[in-house]
Amino acid sequence: QVQLVESGGGLVQAGGSLRLSCAASGRTFSNYAMGWFRQPPGKAREFVAAISWSGGSTYYADSVKGRFTISRDNAKNMAYLRLNSLKPEDTAVYYCAAGNVYYSDRYYRAHEYDYWGQGTQVTVSS
Question: Is the pLDDT reported for residue 111 higher than 90?
Answer without folding.
Answer: yes
